[in-house]
Amino acid sequence: MTGQRDRWAELTGGQAGEEYAQRFARLAESGHDIHGEASFCAALLKPAARVLDAGCGTGRIAIRLAELGHHCTGVDVDSSMLAVARREAPAQDWLLGDLARLDALGLDPGFDLVLAAGNVIPLLAPGTGETVVGHLAAALRPGGLLVTGMGLDAAHLPLDEAPVTITEFDQWCARAGLTLRQRHATWSGDTYDDGGYAVSVHTRPAA
Question: For the whole model, what pTM was predicted?
Answer without folding.
Answer: 0.89
